[in-house]
Amino acid sequence: MPARYTKHDRWKPSRKRTIAQQQVTSHMKAQSTHTKGLLKENIPPAATVSSAELTLPDAILPTSKNFHTRSRVERLEASLQEAQSAVVGAASQARADQQSLTAAQMSLAAAKSEAKHLREHNEILTKRNHALGMRVSRAPLQKAHAVKKATARTIAQTTKHTTFALKNKNIITDTVHDTICELVATHDVPVSSVRGVFGVIADCLGIAVEGDVSTRSIGRVLQEADVAANVQMVDEMMEVDGAY
Fold first, then answer.
1. Could you count the other beta carbons within 10 Å of the beta carbon of residue 202?
2. Which is more confident, 34 or 207?
3. 20 to 30 A Cα–Cα from 87, which one of 43, 72, 187, 233?
4. What is the pLDDT of residues 1-50, one digit of tens each?
């Protein structure tokens, strides 16, 4: 389908002409001037230029259709070049954006790793602070317990050196047992005066006597000592007889 003819396709003298157009125009003007001169002087016309000479190839004599096509091609080429430039610029921008995105992703990954490390460190510090807080809260109780324990130990040691117990869990100790036997058998102390002797000796040493020993308990202690002495004597006699 032929292209539609528009007013823009018309050839205008005001447009810039090519060299071929200028040559054709000069030739036509010269021919027209020569013809007019001949008609004015009524002189037979000279040898005219043949129509073949005036005919130019289509490549030299531009038509409105060829000119419109060439202009359109030039515009299309310019548009193509602009589009190619735009595509190259878009590709460059896309590469730059991709690099920026990669850098941003790497920065985000590093930030996440750092945040995880800081969160773990914060949990450790929180546990440590909690432990320290609990230790500080228990410090007064521990201090009071230590003071109470030390005081009790000191009191026990002081009491041990300032008191003398006749019994241990309601049982006469071996020391008191031996002392009673020695007082009665060796020093002829009456059974009823044994408890008083313990009190006098304790007052002299500056200590207190804990517990009491009844006369009946003293008698039993002496009986046990007598039985033990008889057994020991029999034992020694048997050893002597065996030696001979």
1. 16
2. 207
3. 72
4. 445 545 555 555 555 666 776 777 777 777 766 566 555 554 454 444 44
Calculate the average pLDDT of the chain.
77
- Long-range contacts of residues 184-187, Cβ cutoff 8 Å, at least 24 apart: 184/218, 184/222, 185/222, 185/225
pLDDT for 201 equals 85
For 6, 8, 156, 187, 232, the CA distances from 226, given in Å and listed in that order, are 160, 159, 36, 16, 10
